[in-house]
Amino acid sequence: MLIRFRRGWELPESAATPEHVFLKRRALLKTALAAPTIAAAGSILTGPAFGQTEVAADDPTAKLYPVKRNERYVIDRAITDPSQATTYTNFYEFGSQKNIWRAAQNLKLRPWTVRISGMVEQEKTIDIDTLLAQMPLEERVYRHRCVEAWSMAVPWSGFPMKALVDFARPTGSAKYVVMQTFQDPGMASGQRQFWYPWPYVEGLTIAEATNELAFLVTGLYGKPVPKQNGAPLRLAVPWKYGFKSIKSIVSFTFTDKRPVSFWEQIQASEYGFWANVNPQVPHPRWSQASERVLGTGEMVPTQLYNGYGEFVADMYKGLEEERLYV
Ligand SMILES: Nc1nc2c(c(=O)[nH]1)N[C@H]1C(S)=C(S)[C@@H](COP(=O)(O)O)O[C@H]1N2
Ligand SMILES: [Mo]
After folding, report:
1. 289 and 279 Cβ atoms separated by less than 8 Å
2. Does 97 map to a domain?
3. Is residue 325 part of a domain?
4. In which residue ranges of the chain is pLDDT below 50?
5. At 282, which CATH number?
6. For a pocket test of ligand 1, which of 17, 91, 288 has the largest count of ligand atoms closer than 8 A to its C-beta?
7. Containing domain of residue 43, as a range?
8. Which UniProt keywords apply (predicted)?
9. What pLDDT does 54 receive?
10. How far apart (Å, rounded) are the C-alpha atoms in residues 311 and 305?
11. 301: which of 11, 107, 130, 221 lies 20 to 30 Å off by Cα?
């Protein structure tokens, strides 16, 4: 086992976690007697570089991949090593550390249904495999920029979110689509941390959700997306900070009211609705000017809209009064 100690450029967890949550957790940890697990909190334990990208035994979708890559979306950097992208993950449902990939194997993939509700012609629930059979699967290499200032570039498989919106048939009054992650504290130990506002919620405007870049992910590196990366269905909106890319989605609700997302409920001053990447707008507690590339540790400049301005900048014209970059 490789034990990697935190380096100077890595954000201490206390900087990347809303302060009051951190303090509460500290208080709890102090009184808890679970010392052996807590000992790991000061360092990041990285697992062996095998196993984590293998297809989960209970994932029936392996035969769907690989799918054809869409070459329209090109990036200027190397693809992140799979052993990094699948072991350094944010999935608070399974713990607030980055090394939760083993804990995430507890995620139960089937049965899995997706609920479509709210301002739609007809509400419906569809089983994930029926949905996948109807969606146009392709592969896209996208950058991913976490609000904590690390980044990666990975080949996701999935389908344009627009295909899901078309399938849902929202009515003319819908302005937003709200997505939710599963809620199952028995399965996901992180959801027993009652001070978080579970379930994880995220939202996009209809314009964003139907932007060609908005992608619903079902695969990674030419295989089903691993549990720790948000199986069986997660979002990728690469021009926004990573927390917008909600994992393990169970519902899409169409509404005319802007939702308050999970992180916004925790700390609205630091994690807003729009969360578009902008190197010139610092997070209240750290700079967003550059990012650490996962795997190489290289520091590179962050780009406006994470380099995707040509696809998305127009959507924000006339919205200059909004907090577009928090
Ligand atoms: N349900 C859920 N979705 C989530 C998160 C989470 O904790 N729970 N973390 C977010 C954050 S902060 C990031 S950076 C990305 C990380 O995706 P990855 O682990 O596949 O790199 O997932 C996002 N989606
Ligand atoms: Mo993130």
Report:
1. yes
2. yes
3. no
4. 1-51
5. 3.90.420.10
6. 91
7. 29-308
8. Metal-binding, Molybdenum, Oxidoreductase, Signal
9. 82
10. 9
11. 221
